[in-house]
UniProtKB/TrEMBL annotation:
One MF term in the entry's GO annotations: exonuclease activity
Ribonucleoprotein as UniProt keyword: no
Species assigned in the record: Faecalicatena faecalis
Highest taxon, organism lineage: Bacteria
Any Pfam family hit: RNase_T
Keywords assigned by UniProt, alphabetized: Exonuclease, Hydrolase, Nuclease
The Exonuclease domain, residue ranges: 4-169
Family annotation (CDD domains): DEDDh
Name this protein carries in UniProt: 3'-5' exonuclease
Length: 232
């Protein structure tokens, strides 16, 4: 079992790095099996948090209104991580968001990690759900605030220790840190059709938007079109 690592978790406005945003980072730094430092901070997104995300995480727009922007929070989190191994539940999801943010800051953020979800899929094939909540319930691990970043990170650390206790001797390879590999999708420029449709929508809706038809990407154009179409 690793004696030193960082267990971390994020809350985000959606599932797509580069398109959606980080709204909370929670992490704990473990040294010789003991928590020596914690990281808990909201990040204020550029776009409002949707009711769906609020229902899932409990995080409201009011809670993040006075928070720093995600770039500042991520910059501090990168420093917090130092050269540690990262541990997470479906770790590549959280890693991908930090990786994209790090690249935007000019940092590579190349890490190795251990995924408790990957371990659970191997050693608990009989379980229908391998979610963090289901595994915590199975092992009687208390999580005081599920779907909040720090509490999920703490629950993940406890789950890792529990799984290592029961299974590391039998499945040592599962508990070896592996390079975390995520290649951000290359942004594609918006099509002329999208730009034309967007201009028409802005005019018809009387909307006031700051955007540049020369630099807008396909995903950004799609998001703006979807937002404008949903407005009465």
């Amino acid at each position: 079992m690793l004696g030193s690592y960082i267990a971390f978790d994020l809350e985000t406005t959606g599932l797509k790095p580069g398109e959606h945003e980080i709204i909370e980072i929670g992490a704990l730094k473990v040294r010789n099996g003991k928590v020596v430092e914690r990281f808990m901070e909201f990040a204020c997104p550029k776009e409002p948090i949707t009711p769906v995300i609020t229902n899932l995480t409990g995080i409201t727009n009011e809670m993040v209104a006075s928070a720093r922007c995600s770039q500042d929070v991520v910059r501090d989190f990168l420093g917090f991580c130092e050269d540690d191994i990262l541990i997470g539940h479906n770790v590549i999801f959280d890693y991908s968001f930090v990786k994209v943010s790090a690249l935007n800051l000019g940092d590579q953020f190349e890490k190795s990690g251990i995924d408790t979800l990957k371990i659970a899929r191997k050693v608990h094939k009989e379980m229908e759900s391998k979610s963090l909540g289901s595994l915590c319930e199975y092992y009687h691990i208390e999580n005081q605030a599920a779907h909040r970043a720090y509490h999920d990170a703490l629950a993940t650390a406890k789950l890792y220790q529990t799984l290592a206790h029961y299974f590391e001797e039998k499945e040592p390879k599962l508990f070896q840190p592996q390079p975390l590999i995520y290649k951000p999708k290359k942004e594609v420029p918006a099509t002329s059709k999208q730009i034309g449709f967007l201009k028409k929508l802005i005019q018809n809706k009387g909307a006031s938007l700051e955007w540049n038809p020369d630099t807008i990407t396909k995903s950004e154009a799609s998001r703006l079109i979807e937002e404008l179409c949903s407005k009465p």
